[in-house]
User: What shape does this take?
Amino acid sequence: MTKITTQSHQEQAVYVYEAPVRIWHWINALAIVALCVTGYFIGSPLPTLSGEASDHYLMGYIRFIHFASAYIFIIGFLGRIYWAFAGNEHAKQIFVPPLFSSDWWGGVWHEIKWYLFIAKEPRKYTGHNPLAVLTMHLVFVWGSVFMILTGMALYGEGTGYDSWQYSYFSAWIIPLFGQSQDVHTWHHLIMWALICFIIIHFYVAIREDIMSRQSIVSSMISGWRTFKDHRKVDDGH
Assistant: This one.
């Protein structure tokens, strides 16, 4: 009698990311791309254009796209904060990390070892893993707050002393940093920090999709996290 063992492919699915989170994620991603590209050219303008300067409005268009994208980013961020408490348990993970949980910090350490190829087996989470929560909270959430505050302070300089942007932001943020150029410098530096974070975010999401046998990228499209597993099944022959 021959005993045959086959591989059985099984999947489990959990609904994680609600529609408001997914919509915000992709609109926010487009806004960040627009902000980074236009922000780069605002900080490092094109050296010259042919013809008379009065015939061109290129930098004006670049600044308009930057300001419009900034307002989309700010409105989306405020809406995301609201949904962090109005949505399901996964919606608030990156805003309210369990910093006083020893088990959670153990998960952070395991994920560090997993990304460094020291740990051999991944842990599966219905939402973000602990290291992702920590980095997104520190870099993305607080980085976004910093960019919003400094960006509005710089914008307030252009709208004038009698504008609400100047009163609520420029009047105290610019003196806090010292001068306007210091705010420009820090705003530009944190932009590059966020770009580095986005590159790592791409790498980690694609890596986890491949190596940890759980959906990452597609989860932010469908909302469902699937867990894939291959188990040996004895046919009994």
In short: The two ends are 6 Å apart (CA to CA). The CA atoms of residues 1 and 211 lie 37 Å apart. The beta strands are 5-15, 224-234.
